[in-house]
Amino acid sequence: MTAIATQKTRATGATAVLGRTGFPHVTSATDGSLDIVTGATQPGFNPLDLLYSSLAACLVLSARIAASRFGVLDRLVEVTASVTGEKAADEPSRVARFNIHLDIRGDFDESMRHAIAEAAESEICTVSNTIRGNPEFVTTVAG
């Protein structure tokens, strides 16, 4: 009899609440929380920072998975992903370009670094694959 591995799933999702004044407060499906800022000089995360953060976090996790798949995880020291973006000049308001810098530290040649980066970005990372795609939006409205 063959044993079937079960994959653990994690509840995902977020709820943002905003009153007549103040800033949004975001809560994750697992009870994490974060206050959002909107001022140009306020420390903290604004909505675009969260988008860039999601992509950066997904890419470093995916790079580690890629290194494991390539059998070189033991040579990986650290992965850093820095993500910024450029907003489109025209409407609708959106990010037109993501600028991603991956620093993959470890005992690798350039071809392995590029292979890890490519696998992470285009095969493994759910966030980058979603951004590249055309996901369906289903919105309900209540009062």
UniProtKB/TrEMBL annotation:
| The protein's name in its UniProt record | OsmC-like protein
The record ties this protein, via SUPFAM superfamilies, to: OsmC-like
What lineage is this protein's organism placed in? Bacteria, Pseudomonadati, Pseudomonadota, Alphaproteobacteria, Hyphomicrobiales
Question: Which InterPro entries has this protein been placed in?
Answer: KH_dom-like_a/b, OsmC/Ohr_fam, OsmC/Ohrsf
